[in-house]
Design brief:
260 residues; mainly alpha; Fic-like fold; two-stranded antiparallel sheet; 58% helix; globular
Length: 260
């Protein structure tokens, strides 16, 4: 079986890269932070990721909810707050298969029944457009799910142990995001947790300042492009054309210099 995190597109990706990743990340490392910075940036990441999935609360309202304890209706905050807990857990723990499932349990508290939180789905999975309800994508069949999931984690763990250049870190982080969301292993919460997985991998390789990269906000502010780039690969897992993945993989680097 071919690798799920595919190295063969790295050279093409790098040739199209228009961001100096070392310089851009150095600026984040040198940024002066205050005691509330982590809560602020995590709130923005969490609510941006949640809004990609159709949550209704505005970004600035959620930031006020977390920083100023302003209350909103529970149905507006409970799912983002679950994801916030998952981000806190990730920030405090190493990226391992066990910890990742625990993070999904936290993120899926109000998305799935308890027996499906942190557990692979047992049914087939169709991804629907939030606005139209049309089928966008048919994910990996549940009969091969465990094999794919285990293989993906074996590859992630190998990358965690390997010395990588900063370009290789960002390429592989974006490809982990892509490979995971294409498999769609959980009953719900796949998009949210794939973006957390991407950020968690970055933090493991680059340190805690990676949590301040505004990747989720960039994806949200360019959500139509985000979904268009995912859709380029095809509608069915078995027939995905990964040679068309470069536009998606280039979005993460652009988030490093995003000032929106």
């Amino acid at each position: 079986m071919d690798k799920l995190i595919k190295p063969e597109y790295f050279t093409t990706w790098k040739s199209m890269l228009d961001v100096d990743l070392g310089e851009a990340f150095s600026e984040i490392q040198q940024r002066v932070l205050d005691p509330h910075s982590f809560t602020f940036y995590t709130s923005v990441s969490v609510m941006s990721s949640s809004k990609i999935e159709g949550e209704q609360l505005e970004l600035d309202s959620y930031v006020k909810h977390k920083l100023l304890n302003i209350e909103y209706l529970p149905e507006l905050t409970e799912k983002p707050n679950d994801l916030f807990k998952a981000y806190l857990f990730a920030n405090e723990n190493r990226l391992t298969p066990k910890n990742f499932l625990e993070a999904h349990k936290l993120a899926a508290t109000n998305l799935l029944p308890k027996n499906q939180q942190g557990a692979l789905r047992q049914t087939e999975m169709l991804v629907l457009d939030h606005k139209t309800g049309r089928i966008q994508y048919e994910a990996a069949q549940h009969t091969i799910l465990q094999v794919l999931y285990d293989k993906l984690w074996k590859e992630i763990q190998a990358l965690l142990k390997k010395d990588l250049s900063i370009d290789e870190v960002f390429y592989n982080a974006a490809f982990i995001h892509l490979a995971f969301v294409n498999i769609h292993p959980f009953g719900d919460g796949n998009g949210r947790i794939s973006r957390l997985l991407e950020k968690w991998f970055l933090a493991e390789k680059l340190g805690d300042r990676a949590w301040y990269i505004q990747s989720e906000k960039y994806y949200y502010k360019h959500v139509n492009t985000y979904y268009k780039n995912l859709a380029r690969l095809g509608m069915f897992y078995e027939g995905l054309e990964y040679e068309k993945s470069i536009p998606f993989l280039l979005m993460l680097p652009k988030s490093l210099i995003y000032e929106g």
